[in-house]
Structures
1.
Amino acid sequence: MLCFIKRYRFFISIITLGLGLVWIVVSARGMDLSDKTNPAPQRGFLAPDFTLRNLNSDDVRLSNYRGYPLIVNFWASWCPPCQAEMPTFLKIYNEYKPRGLVLLAVNTQEDRSRALNFVQSHSLTFPVLLDINGTVSDRYRIVSLPATFFINKAGFIDEVAYGGPISEAFLRVQVEKLIQETP
Amino acid sequence: MLPILHLGPLAIQTPGLIILIGVWIGMSITERHATRYQVNGGVLSDLIFISLIAGVIGARLAYVIHYSSAFTNNPISLISLNLGLFEPAWGLIVGLLVGGFYGWRKRLSYKASLDALTSGLAIFAISYHLSQFASGDGYGSPSNLPWAIHLWGLSRHPVQIYAALVDILILCLVWPRPAWFQATGQRFVVYIALNAGERLFLEAFRGDSVFWGNFRSAQVIAWLILALCFWTIGKIKVKQGEVPEDKASAETI
């Protein structure tokens, strides 16, 4: 068989390349947007919508922030990297809030008092939402904390960061990208 | 999908762990196969290690240069462990350049070295696609086939598994054996051609393809690489005095 391949290498090459061209044409199609508009917690997909209560018991819906650069951060008070990165989030939030940045910090499966204690002790000023039952965390496939989703003005996830504490430089770069993107 | 592996208090990022295992096994196999191609296995392992380190540093430096203003306010981020702070393409370029320079300084035969690296690269390719399966990256297009997996809200082709299986087949085909590859450098070129063919075929089943108009860019690039490989294979001939692979193995024994 090796001798056959070596002897007819040129013809095998031409046939293979020809079939390759045919396959490129056969498998060509336009962008299938229906796949990307299917919500999923992954880069390039529409961010799954949710409604949670904040610390004042007001309902907050994610899709209401369409048109704004948005960060959704999942955290818990017992999580050391979450604690370590909160000052960074606070700094960036205060700096970019005038430019439209929205930051939603979703507390995962803790009661209101524990979350409130944490917010007060760290002087957090951005909205904190309570995912007491873990329903939203499940929808976003959160298996470790912290997890941060960067969502653009069109509602699509631009970047996902698992683990922490998140670097200020990375946070700043992602926020700048979100702000400068046109929907 | 298994993005995180919980071992007691530890939460390990599974894709990274799979990549590390692939690199480790690949380096071990490369060092073992190096003697078949009259290449010093230790030097080749050092080349891989140095290239990896250079690639990581290069990828980080490229990111810092690209987004320098972000680091001005927070220089400590320069040494952050955040995996998002890398430019992978530049890391690859820097790694290849540094590796090439190191190989030149050590007077390694580049064709023989590439042949020796082939098995290791094939093993790394397997681990790469398995890591994509663990992370959910490189996902497939929607499918109703019985073996479709549910990922990102839809049933999809398990294209990462397709790729890993093809990679295993490629590894078997390029595994060193007497008489298959007569000329030095041929084994590596054949490996590249097989990989290009794999990408050309499997890209049609991916859901995250980048399009140039109506055509998948990865398929076009793979086709061009395949054509280049066919042309190169025709040019590689056994040089006078060159010891074919089977005789080299016999001499080593």
Note: Strands of chain A lie at 51-54, 59-61, 70-75, 102-108, 128-131, 147-151, 157-162.
2.
Amino acid sequence: MAKKQKNNMRDLINEACGRVPKSYKDDEGNPQEEGLQVNPGKQEAGRNSDTASSTGDAVEPVLAPSAGSAPTSAKVVASDPASENDAAPTAEDSEGQTSPAWDFLMSHCNSFDPSDKGVSVRIDRKVKKRLDLAKARMSETVSMKGMVSAIVLHFLTEHEAMFKQQQQLQEMS
Amino acid sequence: MTNSIKIIFANQKGGVGKSTLCILLANYLAYWKRAVCVIDTDIQATIASIRNFDERTRDGEPPYEVYPLPLDDPDAMEHFMEQSADIEGYQLFDTAGRLDDDVIGVLLTHADYIIVPFEMETKSMMSTFSFLRVMASLKERMGVNPQLFLVPNKYDRRIGTAEELKNLAGMIHEIASYGIVTPCVHYRAHMMRIDTYKISDTLLKSAVYEAFKSIVTFIESQK
């Protein structure tokens, strides 16, 4: 790369690492305390917390520590004193209309229906519980991070449910 | 129209060779006189660490810059991706690959190309499949369409029975529906000895040549 482009890139890198993003500013537009890093998606989503997937550098005062590291662990609700009386917001709350991400998640919540197979097969209870949890998480999250992890959880749980169903079908035949 | 070519190395499966191939592609592009830089977004900072070591032990100017960028704020990453679009040349991003990373979604949706290394082994491919399904969903939902390159990495033809290889071939056939499957990158002991200053002739002419040539040829045909 030419020297000028290298300098431009270096400036951008320094700016990205050092700047205080808008989301870190308080309601009056003042930057928050340096070093305080709060995921705006988690704040906007109200307090749904994914697993303890933080890199470890960020300080997240509004979130309680996760009960476990697996996505299927119990959902942790953050205890932000400023808004603990607020109900968990949905996509509609923020803008008065559903977002594309919300619509997509809701459509995927209903994508797996064992009755489509035309055979009455019991779903393993543990798998069913995880599937329901995955659907519940997907219906509540609006942040990019939450959406990605919810999609992953749903796909993996769906895959497991279908696999076990196939096993049962094989045993029956 | 952007001047940059943003290439993201991603796969949720660890150890498939994201950082290694990122370094090798940067070396390959520098060898062929392309403007290139590496942006290390992985919190482990693998490539940045290797570069730090190389600067102390190698002579001469490095062929490209390596920038650590361990951001965990999606807004900051979004701003960076937008601003860096005007900087000409290849920008290779090494990622942690974890789908629960805050910024991975931003990287994937701003990428021009995504390179997904995977190992020719059942467990690795199953995990890669899950990742690709999530990628497909993100692409559809976010209205973006980065080209995916699926790179079979660490391929050792000595390993695998005829039945296993047949099954793997079937999985490769299925994985091809998600993107372009490049020629294999064969396992070489030299892969353990890479540095960020140059690419060895052994790797350049054998292990990575076909795969990288196919990728770069495709990219430059799109300009």
Note: The helical segments of chain A are 3-18, 40-44, 91-95, 100-109, 125-140, 144-172.
